[in-house]
Amino acid sequence: MVRFGSLPVSHKLLHCGNSSAEARAQGCVYSLVDVRWVPGQCYDKEMDDKFNSLPWRYFANKNGTQEITQELAKQGDTEFWVTMEYHITHCEFTMKQLRRRYLEAARRNPQMVVASNTYMTEEEHFDHCVEYMNPRKIIEPDLIITFSKMSYGTCQVPL
Fold this sequence. Notes:
With about 160 residues, the protein is α+β, with helices and mostly antiparallel strands. It has helices spanning about 20-25, 45-50, 70-75, 85-110, 120, 125-130, and strands spanning about 1-5, 5-10, 10-15, 30, 35-40, 60, 65-70, 80-85, 115, 145-150, 155-159. The chain contains six helices and eleven strands. The radius of gyration is 16 Å and the shape is globular. InterPro entries: Phomopsin_biosynth_assoc.
């Protein structure tokens, strides 16, 4: 039981397991905007498609000499490196997704727990994203700086 404001709200936590095979078996989808496996009920295809339409590059190594295709990255079996611009845009999209989810929930019922992957709503990650978008950090947008390790998300949904 979690509380939204002062009202108790029932919810369940969906999991993607600990491997790509488990994630697929649980109905999870690998999202390049979330950079992790996301339970299908919390997957935002529209945002993922918008993000994937941008000309991103993915690298097998930090020095950028071994590029991998977006198709390979989208399969969710390969870890990869991305640029500063990618990381910052991921943070922007995370905040946009969070906003969309809460607005959708508010329209339906302001007292319900929204369907959102828990990584998106973790205070530490949210604060990190806000801080990471500081314009001073955009000096080198092509700098390969972020390693995307394989990650299997969770999702909180109302009952």
